[in-house]
Amino acid sequence: MTAAKELLSTEALEQILKRTREALEEGRSQIFEVAEAARQECTRTEVVLQTVQAEMEQAIADVELLTKRFAQVRVELLRANRDFEDYSEEEKRRSYEAAAEVRDALAAAKERERLLRVRRDNLQQTLAKLREIAGKADLLVSQVGMALTYLSGSLEDVNRQLEHMQIREQAGQEILLGQEIERKRMAGALHDGPVQDLAHLAVQLEICEKLYGAGRQAEVLAKFSDLKKTAQGAMADLRRIIYDLNPMTLDDLGLVITINNYLDNLSTQSGIETRLILLGEERRLDPQLETAVFRIVQEAANNCLKHASASSIQVTLEYHHQKISVSVQDDGIGFEAGRVQDKLKSGKHFGLLNMQSRARILGGSLHFHGEPSKGARVLATIPLVNGEGGEVT
Asked: Could you tell me whether strands 376-383 and 312-319 are parallel, antiparallel, or unpaired per DSSP bridges?
């Protein structure tokens, strides 16, 4: 029993922490050396790669020059064979020797080009791997440094520091997830909209070019109207995507007007009735917080549009002194609360995860309310720092 108490004593745990810190310090130094060596090797490899690239470009030029020269020599050789009476034996011999010399030089140049290409590809792969190693080593140095920072305090602070570190790490992961979700959404919107329109536009322009070349100007002129509509549609889609990425009215006019404009556009495009209710006195908040609230409204409204079969959407924005809350409610088919939690746990429903991440990163909460056939409601509440917007630390 005495031994157990000694093992669990503060002094014993302090010794464990001391040895752990020493091991981490040593490990961080070694990892830093690995990172530095990888960076130096990256620099050396980049220089070699540039040299090989220059040599390969020269080899390509040599191949092109020798190919032209070989074609000329072959023409001269064909003439000597065709008009053999006009050429002496010595001239014929020189023609054959010249052709053989150029042919051998061309084969050697092509082989050199091939070998340089192989070496360039290998160097590029090596450089990519070295950069990956250096990046991972830098990340490890940073993580070990963070661990040392949290272990540098007294034993009484360790639990609190570790808990805070876990929260920060989770928030960082959620930020990365949110960024990835935004990238995928933007890529999908660009691919399904403007990219398809521009591809169609390119094909139609090629057709117009061929028609014009064939003297069918009337048909070309008739197609211009459709091409103009396609281009205008692509521009409209791009403006919408740019607005979704960064609604300029949010910075200039504030959260309320931006949400109201968004709902008006949604109603015009979908035919769904929308309504914004403002409670409390509107005031400008931290840009990051206003963006988070708008994105939550945007994502929730999009979910209503896609899945709820709703005829109306109501957004309620309420300003308090110490918090801001926003709810998005529809009159659609509703859902079972348990199924929403299952979707969140699955990690596959990016829209729900995106809303939850935005609220949690700012120290807030997100709740889903609904019943089958009775509509659904998303409620986000985010605390304010000293009555103003800002990330809760």
From this structure: unpaired
